[in-house]
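Office hours follow-up: a student asked to see two folded examples consecutively, so here they are.
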Amino acid sequence: MRKAFYIREKRAGRRVKCVRYQRPLPRDTGRARAAKKHHTRAAQRFINCKNSTEKLELLFYANFDSPLSCFVTYTYDEEHLPRSRDSAKANIAKANEQMRREKRRRGEPFPYVYTTEGSARAAAETADVGGNPWEVCPWEVPEQWEELSGKPTEWGNGEVRLHHHAIMLLSEQDCDTLRAAWPYGDVHISRIKVDDMHSFERLASYITKDSRAGKTKTGERSYTPSEGLIQPEVHGRWVEEYEDIVPPKGAILISEMREENLYSSYHQCSFILPREAEIKEEYRSPYRTRKRKQ
């Protein structure tokens, strides 16, 4: 029997997005071809991550799903408050370069993602963001997470002291080195709860909030990644009609949707693999139903 169904998968660490659908074939009638094209477009939209927040979430899963994963906030004291946003970016770039040299000396990689927030117009006496839990350990302020769904406004007048947020992999020794590399103010470091299925999703929304609030230029990325980060992988293969998408035992289901019509069917599924499931190859369903009797 000729394979008529197709499964596409996007994998970023333990985060998996799968979609199963029927692609148009040369022998299809006009109606069948139109129905299958509809599901093909839906599958492409599901796999393609054009949304900056979802793209960043997958980047987190691919590179920072580790007990060493940390949320870092760099702040400035009044003496070192930059006069411009570009000056602030130069400061964190210099600090990252110092960390990179130290990690390279020990033969270790230094992956990171950071963003710069705040305004150079903020008065010097503006309250230091280091004293705000939302800035240094945001998951401890659950009442503010819902505001991230729209266009968040953290500060009523928009004038807050310049600061930086970063996601990094840091040992205890690295934490001391990082603080020594930042002479401009304080460095707040918190361990990320990577086993909480919402951690990376929320932090991706947090890091991109300025973009959604319209504080960045059109087309400008709201965060800066280090070079060499692992990117999500996309695989695809033809399958038999009886093969479906079934997350492995212990996986955490994030979303699932099925849609069928007279000529075609569509099944999308997004989930997080259990940590012990070291699947190096592309995901393949462990489940096979019996073939239908002809």
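And the second, which I mentioned at the end of office hours:
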Amino acid sequence: MKSISGVGLKEVQGVYSGAEGRLWELIMGEQIHIGGLTSSMDLAEQAGIKAGTQGVDLCCCSGAGMRFLVRFRNVAGMMGVDATEAMVELGKQRCQQAGLADKIRFTLADVCNSGLKANSADFVWGEDAWCYVADKTTLIAEAARIVRPGGVIAFTDWVEGDGLSQTEAERFLRFMKFPSLQSIGGYRDLLKASGCEVTADRNTGRFGPYMDLYLNMLGMQLTYDALQLIGFDQSLMQTMAAEMAFIQQLAHAGKIAQGLFVAKKKG
């Protein structure tokens, strides 16, 4: 696992309370994760998410994942946990507008200490967001505490691949505001240590092609929209484009990836 100092919850909250978070949504859509609906459907299928179940989304952002689960998997109810107040309030508004407020609730809390009841959910969900959490050991333990025995922990995340140097990791993590980056093997070990049987842990292979897509969209169609979000600061735009191109290089070299994980809590 690679990590850096000086990046924590405060910096992450700054991203998703301001223009940078809106820029990511412009590029990636409301589902701010690699693969969008395709990725969500893949994860739900792998995890066997069933109609009528109750779930918890840790690092739920504005709740797009929960709305997906209610609409496409007929989940009975979802609780979203996020530490950024602006995202929680936006999520409540969007669920109200979508007519889903009766099935989706939010709580403003640290996902490592959610305050939710133990053994209270049929599944715990996450999509490309746990990379923002510094203490991944405690995060996985919290997910395992919340889910009932026999329940499932299902998530995707940005992970360390092969050959990522510390220098490359420093640049990548600081730009993305990630305090740490776990590996596929690292997450597997943490899930096992928290009393779970891992049934899926793989590289989705999506990272490189989707970075190509995002950069093409940004350069060919969304340039004006992106500039508007950052106050038409062309210098900042060039800097951000260069950092995204660097991430693209890392992805195609296999040094970073999107990992998919499904684990069943023993008991």
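Two things to take away from it. The chain has one domain: 2-265. The chain has eleven helices and nine strands.
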